Amino acid sequence: MPLIQINGKAVHIQELNKGAAETVVMVHGMFSNLSVYYFNIAPVLAAHFHVVLYDLKSHGMSERSPGGYDLDTMSDDLLALIDGLGLGRVHLVGYSFGALISLKTAMRFPGRINGLAMIEAPDPADDKTRGIIDDYSREFLEHYISNFTDTTRVQMGKRQLERNHRMYEYLFYQTSIKQDMLAERGFFADNGIRALIHQPLLIYGNRSNCLQAGYFLAQRIPGAVLQEIEGDHNVPVQAPEQVAASLSQFLCAEVAMV
Amino acid sequence: MDTVTTGNQAAATAIFDLLKQFITEVIGEEFVEEMDIQPSSSFTRDLEMDSIEIVAFSEKVKAHFGEHIDFTGWLSGMDLDQLINLNLNDIINYISVCR
Fold first, then answer.
1. For residue range A137-180, what is the model confidence (pLDDT) as tens digits?
2. B52 SS3 class
3. For B45-58, how does the pLDDT look when each residue is reduced to its tens digit (9 = 90+)?
4. Which of A43, A56, A197, A205 is the most exposed place for a label (fewest CB within 10 A)?
5. In this structure, what DSSP letter does residue B47 have?
6. Which Gene3D superfamilies match (chain B) (predicted)?
7. Ranges of chain A whose pLDDT falls below 70
8. Domain residues for A89?
């Protein structure tokens, strides 16, 4: 399992097609891990790009951390990862919380980011999204049950329930993730969003409860393009082929422009 | 013909033992002791492995068999149902064909 040290913590990374000229770094969402991209989406992008997947702190197989879940610190971590791998400019793809981290990183370090694609970025100020953590916890568990166990035949096994429960308990009760997310309520009002020089691709599920955030960002960010795909907030799991095709087409066009 | 079949079986058994070792490394010996890992065991239903554990397992397969097989590419061609139903035999057969 490849681990690298980033800002003093061990970070689990996976790389595909190392040696390709252009790199895409993919950022997963809260309570998820890099496997959301690994099986179906990353291999499609790896036909053209060096793809870097990493587990956010306290997620997947990365080391735990009690604090630093605000977007500034998360984007510092992402930049440190990019630097640590010796990469110059990269393309960024983020999903949900990972999309917010990607957006923040592009705003703070515009010269380091080429193409920017955001999947299902939620508005941290939204009342629905403010209950984000409770919603996500349910979705997270449902995601596992619906995708990696078969609910019609078997319930989630004892070991998996315990594993998930441990992560959930840790993140909610022993880290600052809740407070850090609440402190980001004003993020969509940040003038930096209006001033973004990237023209990002925004992908949302057409039945997603985050779709309004997509309309807002499409209107707010100059040159942003919104694509709706059949599905809800879990669209990368529900329609991985379509999501991968959209990302691939968008990022290949970005390369052509450069 | 018999020799070939026996040889194939021996190779399949060797791959099975190796995969079992990888699974033990990923999920830990204490859990494996309670399981009866068979070639027909499915990763999600029988072994209760989640997606990040399957990633770790895949990396071990790739690290061992290297360029002989395109394991990630093979997995990426599967839809969700196929991934859910994936068992050790599927992987043993895939590796045997590639070698």
1. 555 555 555 554 443 334 467 777 778 778 888 988 899 998 99
2. helix
3. 888 888 899 999 99
4. A197
5. S
6. ACP-like (1.10.1200.10)
7. 127-156, 258
8. 3-257
Query: Are B50 and A160 in contact (CB < 8 Å)?
Result: yes
Beta bridge partners of A225: A201
> Which is nearest to A85 in space by CA: A51, A59, A43?
A51
The CATH number for A171's domain is 3.40.50.1820
Domain total of chain B: 1
For chain A, give the secondary structure using H, E and C.
CCEEEECCEEEEEEEECCCCCCEEEEECCCCCCCHHHHCCCHHHHCCCCEEEEECCCCCCCCCCCCCCCCHHHHHHHHHHHHHHCCCCCEEEEEECHHHHHHHHHHHHCHHHEEEEEEECCCCCCCHHHHCHHHHHHHHHHHHHHHHHCCCCCCCCCHHHHHHHHHHHHHHHHHCCHHHHHHCCCCHHHCHHHHCCCCCCEEEEECCCCCHHHHHHHHHHCCCCEEEEECCCCCHHHHCHHHHHHHHHHHHHHHHHHC
- Residue B38: phi and psi, rounded to 5, are -125, 160
Cα separation, B94 vs B39, in Å, equals 13
CB pairs under 8 A between A and B: 67
Output the CA–CA distances (angstroms, integers) from residue A133 to A124, A151, A172, in the order listed.
Answer: 11, 24, 9
Q: Is B32 on the interface with A (CB under 8 A)?
A: no
Predicted local distance difference test score (pLDDT) of residue A152: 36
Quote the minimal CA–CA distance from B50 to chain A in Å: 6
The minimum CA-CA distance between B1 and chain A, rounded to whole Å, is 38
| The residue count for chain B | 99
Residue span of the structural domain in which B37 resides? 2-98
Q: Are A41 and A247 in contact (CB under 8 A)?
A: yes
Domains identified in chain A, total number = 1
Question: Within 10 Å of residue A127's Cβ, how many Cβ atoms?
Answer: 7
Instruction: Kindly state whether B55 is in contact with chain A, defined as any CB-CB distance less than 8 angstroms.
Output: yes
Question: Which CATH number fits the domain that encloses residue B18?
Answer: 1.10.1200
Identify the CA nearest to B89 among candidates B27, B9, B2: B9
Matching residue, tokens 């407070």:
A179
How far, in Å, CA of A132 to CA of A124, rounded?
8
